């Protein structure tokens, strides 16, 4: 909640600074008339530009640094609207007719930026690549190192409970977990109490969050449940938090002090893990959440089931996470599109599975996803068709294949 207030404060400050620099009166949102605010916003949308700091000049090409990112303008409008609502003003700068001209100006500005090549694509949080996921898993296997063990528990909880690292972990204690078995006897851990998150603050109007998120034991090296148990075992009995500072020199069987880590300490975990694992890229805490959602999406889970895990309340929010496909899929799509028009590909497309044998039966089932040739031109019911989560089997005898 504090982070949200700070973000809102920064947006309001940006608008106030622009008013001062433009020689316009500073807006008092508690008393301003809709017409006056609309005129200010229309001028702001049309003329506001970011300060050309050295950091901005270094991070962006010269032609792209002169305009705000499209999301900056959209988010500022949303922040102003939120502030008006918070202070009890019956003004909606997004929907009210008085603000139509201002919003038309913003829309025209965004269209102009695209046409002029000044609009930058949105840079989403990095998804952890499959190769780096493997490196991280290997790095976190060392449960003899107190710091690495803590990293393992933090990472495992973040990815299994699809959490936000700065809001979730600091609320956990050594008594926050229940270790259970499911109906087939497989062991798992769940969280015994509710936790506050960005979109779930509690209160009378709050809907129930899913209460049965589970993290299952793998019975392999680096098992998340075993790592959690071991960290609890080596925690200080007087500690009120699960994540506490690691001791430089363990005392008896106690590897961690009773002093809880601050929220800001969790921002350093993922960069440290990235470095320790030798990842190609350096990742953030939010990358873990984005990766969890991407993995569930790639595995074919329904959006509604992913939303239950992530806590999102609408599908549009999920789409901003599960937005891409793996590098292997990108290569395959490009190879398929690199066709010569005669049904063959300029670049040979590797089969997704190598299940063929020399002694083929007279008839077999061929799944579209398993074919080893790329067909660029299709006819019949496949032409101009899109299929999602479908599986087609064709019974084809040997003579047909020949």
Structure characterization notes:
- Helix 6 packs across helix 10 (269-277) and helix 7 (146-160) crosses helix 9 (224-233).
- The chain has helices spanning 2-21, 34-47, 54-59, 70-86, 100-115, 130-139, 146-160, 165-168, 224-233, 269-277, 285-298, 303-310, 315-319, 327-337, 398-401, and strands at residues 177-181, 187-191, 215-216, 244-251, 254-260, 363-367, 393-397.
- By secondary structure, it is mostly helical.
- The protein has a three-stranded antiparallel beta sheet. A two-stranded antiparallel sheet has the order 4-5.
- The chain is globular.
- Helices cover 41% and strands 9% of the residues.
- Residues 226-323 form the Tyr recombinase domain.
- One of its GO terms (molecular function) is DNA binding.
Keywords:
402 residues, mainly alpha, two-stranded antiparallel ribbon, 7 strands, 41% helix, globular
Shape: globular
Give the SSE string: HHHHHHHHEEEHEEHHHHHEEH
In whole angstroms, the N-to-C terminal distance is 66 Å
The structural class is mainly alpha
Strand content: 5-15%
The count of strands amounts to 7
| CA radius of gyration | 27 Å
**Helicity level:** 40-55%
**Distinct helical segment count:** 15
Output the strand order for the largest sheet.
Answer: 1-2-3
Specify the biggest β-sheet.
Answer: 3 strands, antiparallel
The oligomeric state of the chains shown is single chain
Mean of all residue-level pLDDT scores: 77
Poorly predicted parts: 201-206, 349-385
Protein name: Tyr recombinase domain-containing protein
Domain Tyr recombinase: 226-323
GO biological process, one term: DNA recombination
GO molecular function: DNA binding
């Amino acid at each position: 909640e504090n982070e949200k207030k700070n973000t809102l404060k920064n947006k309001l400050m940006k608008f106030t600074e622009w008013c001062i620099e433009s020689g316009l009166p500073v807006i008092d949102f508690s008393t301003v008339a809709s017409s006056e605010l609309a005129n200010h916003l229309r001028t702001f949308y049309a003329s506001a530009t970011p300060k050309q700091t050295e950091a901005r000049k270094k991070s962006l090409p010269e032609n792209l640094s002169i305009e705000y990112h499209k999301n900056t303008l959209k988010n500022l409008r949303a922040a102003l609207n939120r502030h008006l609502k918070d202070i009890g003003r019956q003004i909606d700068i997004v929907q009210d007719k008085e603000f139509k001209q201002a919003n038309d100006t913003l829309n025209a500005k965004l269209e102009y930026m695209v046409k002029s090549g000044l609009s930058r694509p949105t840079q989403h949080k990095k998804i952890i690549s499959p190769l780096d996921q493997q490196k991280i898993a290997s790095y976190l296997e060392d449960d003899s190192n107190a710091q690495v063990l803590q990293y393992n528990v933090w990472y495992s909880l973040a990815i299994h409970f699809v959490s936000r690292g700065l809001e979730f972990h600091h609320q956990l204690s050594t008594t926050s977990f229940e270790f259970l078995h499911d109906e087939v006897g497989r062991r798992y851990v769940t969280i015994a109490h509710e936790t506050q998150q960005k979109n779930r603050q509690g209160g009378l109007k709050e809907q129930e969050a899913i209460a049965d998120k589970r993290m299952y034991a793998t019975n392999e090296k680096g098992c998340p449940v075993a790592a959690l148990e071991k960290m609890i075992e080596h925690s200080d009995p007087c500690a009120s938090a699960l994540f506490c500072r690691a001791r430089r020199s363990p005392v008896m069987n106690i590897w961690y002090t009773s002093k809880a880590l601050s929220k800001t300490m969790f921002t350093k975990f993922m960069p440290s893990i990235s470095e320790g694992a030798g990842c190609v890229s350096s990742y953030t805490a939010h990358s873990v959440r984005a990766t969890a959602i991407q993995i569930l999406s790639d595995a074919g889970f329904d959006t509604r089931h992913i939303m239950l895990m992530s806590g999102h309340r609408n599908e549009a929010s999920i789409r901003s996470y599960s937005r891409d496909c793996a590098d292997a899929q990108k290569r395959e799509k490009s190879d398929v599109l690199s066709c010569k028009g005669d049904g063959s590909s300029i670049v040979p497309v590797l089969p997704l599975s190598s299940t063929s044998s020399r002694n083929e039966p007279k008839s077999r089932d061929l799944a579209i996803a398993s074919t080893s040739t790329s067909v660029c031109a299709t006819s019949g019911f496949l032409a101009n068709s899109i299929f999602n989560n479908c599986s087609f089997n064709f019974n084809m005898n040997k003579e047909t294949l020949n």
